[in-house]
Write a structure and sequence with these properties.
Largest sheet: 6 strands, mixed
Helix content: 55-70%
Number of domains: 3
Radius of gyration: 27 Å
Oligomer: single chain
Length: 415
């Protein structure tokens, strides 16, 4: 994963600090350039722990001369170390596990040993790992909100899936009416009013119309109410009344959770919009086809805004996981999608590429050309996402908004 790291360093590290972090305390180990242990300690979480780390290092080097290995790239401890001037390297826990096997086969593990392992790792192989860069406070705020927003959407989808499974057990008419939109306002309003088939059959058109109105629907309410009433009253297979009542309690609970999540997602989206639009890069990011406020905020959040993080467009593509990898051995050669990548960013880039198909003539033609040349839908979207990430890098590097003609050429977008 070193191919997306800017090679320039402010100072040459002379000592190496491994930090095995935990919730209540952290084990730390300090090594010199030869691998000899200088210090070791267990420090508490919080300000006191950071003070003890500073004191432990102070007798041997300045903060700018210390390379730190730790298994996370965020949190208050990481922020404090970066703020103090340490060179912090975030090491994937899976990589740490492989390094552990490199030094022994007993599979023994302890926090103290892991702290030394991390210090040794940055001493010998830090060029293969990502140095945590300093994003602006505004970018960090966007990241916090974007990830929380995405997590709440995922939680709502899980609830909707559980609700669908429940309705399949005893209430097929509701699924015929609502389809897959079980997290919509209409679904919440209708299922809150009629959580069981028996309750659904008793609904009048006026009650259904009122539920649709609460959901925000405004057109053809009378026709829709009549159609829904007819579907609810159709003959269907039913569970025994007592069982249906039990299922109805589950439906009511799930609907309450979905309603709360809808409100929370709406509030988070408002906060995310305000935070993203306050960032100086927002206008450039929004200018690219397919990037709205939410998706643009996710892209900014995961890429960060440190201009020195990516040496070139290829480095940014590698970090996004859009650039392919090649496996070659003997006469065999195969090109594959990257497995190790920022999952949040990979998902956002995939959606970005899909959305750009209806917002950019050049993007659509690029996708169609890939499909004509034999790529399937997912392969073509990944290739388009790779191209879009390169365009984003150029726009940010030169401080210019996206231009369809500059990106694809006049001949590429000509009708």
């Amino acid at each position: 994963m070193a191919d997306f790291i800017h090679p320039k360093r402010r100072r040459l590290a002379v000592v190496f600090l491994g930090v095995d972090w935990a919730e209540e305390y952290h084990d730390v180990c300090l090594l010199d350039s030869e691998g000899n242990r200088l210090e070791k300690a267990r420090v508490p979480e919080g300000i006191e722990g950071v003070r003890r780390i500073h004191a432990l290092v102070a007798d041997h080097a300045e903060p700018g001369e210390v390379a730190v290995g730790i298994e996370t790239d965020r949190g208050l401890l990481v922020g404090a170390l970066i703020g103090a001037g340490y060179q912090v390297y975030a090491v994937n826990p899976l990589a740490v596990s492989r390094y552990r096997e490199r030094h022994g086969v007993s599979r023994a593990k302890s926090d103290k040993a892991d702290a030394k392992l991390l210090a040794d790792l940055v001493r010998t192989d830090r060029h293969n790992h990502r140095q945590v860069r300093g994003d602006s406070e505004q970018a960090l705020a966007v990241r916090v909100l974007a990830r929380a927003h995405q997590a709440q959407i995922a939680a709502r989808q899980r609830q909707a899936n559980q609700l669908r499974n429940t309705l399949r057990e005893f209430y097929p008419a509701a699924l015929e009416i609502l389809g897959t939109d079980l997290d919509s306002k209409m679904a919440v309003a209708l299922l809150s009013t009629a959580p069981t088939p028996a309750a659904g059959r008793k609904l009048s058109r006026a009650q259904i119309r009122s539920a649709l109105s609460r959901a925000g629907l405004q057109r053809n309410l009378d026709e829709k109410s009549a159609a829904i009433q007819q579907q609810l009253r159709q003959e269907q297979l039913e569970a025994p009344a007592v069982v249906a009542q039990a299922f109805g309690a589950i439906v009511s609970g799930a609907v309450k959770v979905i309603r709360a999540l809808n409100d929370e997602i709406s509030d988070l989206e408002a906060e995310l919009t305000a935070s993203f639009e306050a960032h100086p890069d927002a206008e450039i990011i929004r200018s690219l086809p397919g990037l709205g406020v939410v998706l643009g905020a996710r892209v900014l959040a995961e890429f960060g805004d440190d201009r020195n993080r990516y040496a070139n467009a290829k480095c940014r593509k590698n970090y996004a996981g859009t650039s392919p990898i090649t496996k070659a051995s003997g006469t065999q050669k195969v090109v594959l999608a990257r497995f190790v990548r920022n999952r949040h960013l990979a998902d956002a880039t995939y959606l970005w590429a899909f959305c750009s198909l209806t917002h950019s003539v050049g993007a659509r033609r690029y996708y169609d050309t890939r499909r004509t040349n034999g790529a399937n839908h997912h392969q073509a979207l990944r290739a388009l996402g790779n191209r879009l990430v390169g365009l984003l890098h150029g726009c940010l590097r030169y401080g210019q908004n996206y231009s369809e003609v500059v990106a694809w050429g006049e001949s590429a977008i000509a009708a």
